[in-house]
Amino acid sequence: MSLVLPILFVILFLTRGHLRKIRLNARMISVGVVALVTVLLIVGFGIATRWLFEQRIETAVPPIYDIYRRIYDVTSP
Amino acid sequence: MSHHRSILFHFKVSRPAFWAALSILFAVLIGVFILDPIWQWYGLHVPGEQNTKADFTYPVDTVFYIRNAELGYRWSVHEPTSIWFHPLLSWATRILPNQIPGNLRLYFLSLVSALFSLIVVYKYSLKVFQVELSPYLLLLAILVPGGLNIAVGNAELPALLFNTLLLLAIINRNSGAIIFLVGAFAILTKPNAIYMLAPTAVYGLYAFVRRDKDMVWRCILGMLGILLPWIGWIGYVDMRVGETGAYWQARQIATVPLYLGPITLVYRAVQAMALGDWGETLRFATAFVIPLVDLWLVLLVPFRSELHRLAGISSILAMLLITLVINNPNKVIVYAMTLPSHIAVGLLAMQAGFQNVFHPIGLSRSKHFILTLALLSYLLFCVGMFLFFVIGTPLEWYY
């Protein structure tokens, strides 16, 4: 996570000549990013649904954690 | 007489502060007459403590800020509900007269923050949108997903205030000291201020490409304003606990690591939707749907500059990314309320929708139909989120 910004800075520094040319298409960047995120989530949900059915899980799986109940377990005497 | 009346009317309606204040009053009435009886009936209690009842002035984890104010911090990794929470709101609660109960002091601070938040979000909207947001619309702020949080005591509204001030200070090219200070206040209120690193970076990178050095420095100071006090607070917590890494150790309890694969949260969401109960299903669904709806709204509304649109998108993506990285779908409905773009875009979408429904000037019949349908869908979504907040809070559906 902490490396994302420095990497972005370097990429931008190296490509700023090109970036000036595509500045007018900034709207397309927004549309592209939002479309990409939406597609990735849809694909992710699709893959996850397939896994679920392949594993033939038929009973409710308890939550991996229950945040406050777990804290309560930790903190209760 | 009629002239005076029209001046008075004009004065009132042209003041966003007036409508913001009216919105807060409206929210207080909803809190007292609707939320409180319903939540008492459902037996709202402190998270993890079934027998400790709470009310609308300190629902969910607000009580932990009050405890930090009244009892002081308990410096131990075994007290995560103390050292999890950043200090500014607890300090401010402690400063107020202690003859007043702690929950009312924090509720008061939350309401004052909400009032100023609505005003600065309105000012932010004037800066970034191509069309002017009507101040009347502030009355509908409680309808924006999570907006009902205005009616209850919480730390999200103070966070929204500082986050919006940070973006405004950068856009307005205020002095570096002010930008740094606002960033520091934001992170010391809630860790959610780190969402603002993304739009600050977008403004900074754009300025960098344009060789606007002053703006680059302002953006760097904004980021440092968030990061340095955060590092300072982490170090202070570790020092008081007497253990390096104590801050993160306490936080890990609220984090499910990505050991099950890169889309674990998505997989768990599908599991919950297929096999879980209503609460689990809605917890995961809202974690994805609220940011996605926001992202699409940001694409649809007219911005003055594409830069502001990208900045808005980046802050919503930061929230979504952090949800995925910490693998925790909890509280997205209230965390969204710390984003200036969430509430501003929601209000503008409502305004555009209403204008198209009631004054469909220059629109073909098919476009008018589509926009009416879009408004109705968004309003339906908002009403659904309103009900989710009302029922989901006492039933622990989102935390």
Summed up:
The complex is a heterodimer of chains A (77) and B (399). Chain A is mostly helical and 77 residues long.
Task: Describe the protein.
- The complex is a heterodimer of chains A (77) and B (399).
- Chain A has 77 residues and is mainly alpha-helical.
- Chain A has a domain at 25-77.
- In chain A, 74% of the residues lie in helices and 0% in strands.
- The model of chain A is unreliable at 72-77 (pLDDT under 50).
- Chain B has 399 residues and is an all-alpha fold.
- Chain B has one domain.
- In chain B, 68% of the residues lie in helices and 2% in strands.
- Chain B is built from 17 helices and two strands.
- In chain B, strand 1 and strand 2 (49-53) form a beta hairpin.
- In chain B, helix 3 packs across helix 5 (88-95), helix 5 crosses helix 6 (102-128) and helix 9 (197-209) crosses helix 14 (306-325).
- Chain B starts with a helix and ends in a 7-residue tail after the last helix.
- Mean pLDDT of chain B is 88; it is low at 4-13.
Please mark out the parts of chain B with pLDDT under 50 across 5 or more consecutive residues, or reply none: 4-13
* DSSP strand content of chain B: under 5%
H/E series of chain A: HHH
Mean pLDDT of chain A: 67
The total count of helices of chain B amounts to 17
- Please write the string of helix (H) and strand (E) elements of chain B: HHEEHHHHHHHHHHHHHHH
Q: Report the β-strand fraction of chain A as a percent range.
A: under 5%
Oligomer designation: heterodimer
Q: Distance between the terminal alpha carbons of chain A, to the nearest Å? A: 37 Å
Could you give the count of β-strands of chain A? Answer: 0
Mean pLDDT of chain B: 88
Q: From the helix content, strand content and strand pairing of chain A, which structural class follows?
A: mainly alpha
Query: Which two protein chains have the largest interface (Cβ within 8 Å of the partner's Cβ), and how many residues from each?
Result: A-B, 43 and 47 residues
Q: Name the overall outline of chain B.
A: globular
